[in-house]
Amino acid sequence: MNIVIIGGDNSGKTTLANNLHKRFENSRVIHSPGKDLTAEEMVKFMLENVEVEGVNIFDRFPLIEEDVNGPVLRGVSKLDNIPSQIKERIMDYIDIWILCFPGFKCILNWGDREQMEGIKENCVELYSRYILIGGNIAKRFPNKYLDYNYNSDLNGDIIFEKINNILRG
Questions:
Q1: Order of strands across the sheet that contains 145-148
Q2: Domain count, the chain
Q3: CATH number at residue 137
Q4: Are 39 and 81 in contact (CB under 8 A)?
C-alpha cells in the first residue's frame, strides 16, 4: 500500500507520517529525496519506492512537490518533460492521497524555524498550488483522497480510521 502525504511546510505532514507509521504494521516513512535530483532520478526514486512491499508512507512526493515548488521557486518543474504516461503510471500506484492543510493562520506561524529559500516569501502561492493540485487529485481519485487538519485530529486518529474505511471498500 502506498500513502502519499502532500502539503507545504508547517502543515503537519511529518507528524502525520510518523503517527501513521506507528499504527501500520510493516510500514516505513519515505522522505523526499530533495530538490537536487534530476527528473530521471526523481522518477527512479518514486518507481523504486512504490513497488516495495508493505505500507509505504511518503512524506512529500516528488511528482507533486516538483509541480508545486518548481514553477513557484524556479519558474519551471523539472518533471515537465517527463511523458504523461510515466506520471500516470506512478499516480496509479498510490492507494491513498492526503492533503495536509490546517489553514493559513497555522501555516504562517513559523516561529524560529528555518525554511528553504523562497518558502516563506511564496507560501501563499505555494499553498494555493497544493490546494489546486489536491482538488485535481480529489476529482480524479475521489475514493482515494483525504484532507487532513491537525487542529481537529492532532494524533491522526480520524485520518487513520478514514484510511481503514477506504481500504475496506
A1: 27-31, 55-59, 2-6, 96-100, 145-148
A2: 1
A3: 3.40.50.300
A4: yes
d(CA 118, CA 115): 8
Which structural domain range is residue 17 located in?
Answer: 2-168
d(CA 18, CA 162): 17
Nearest to 101 by CA among 2, 1, 16, 3: 16
Tell me the pLDDT tens digit for each residue of 44-71.
999 999 999 999 999 999 999 999 999 9
Let me know: does 79 contact 63? Beta carbons within 8 Å. yes
Closest C-alpha to 73, from 1, 129, 153 = 129
Farthest-apart Cα atoms in the chain, separation: 43
Backbone angles phi, psi at 6, to 5 degrees: -120, 160
**Global pTM exceeds 0.85:** yes
Number of neighbouring beta carbons within 10 Å of residue 40: 12
- Are the CB atoms for 50 and 94 separated by under 8 Å? yes
Amino acid at 127: Y
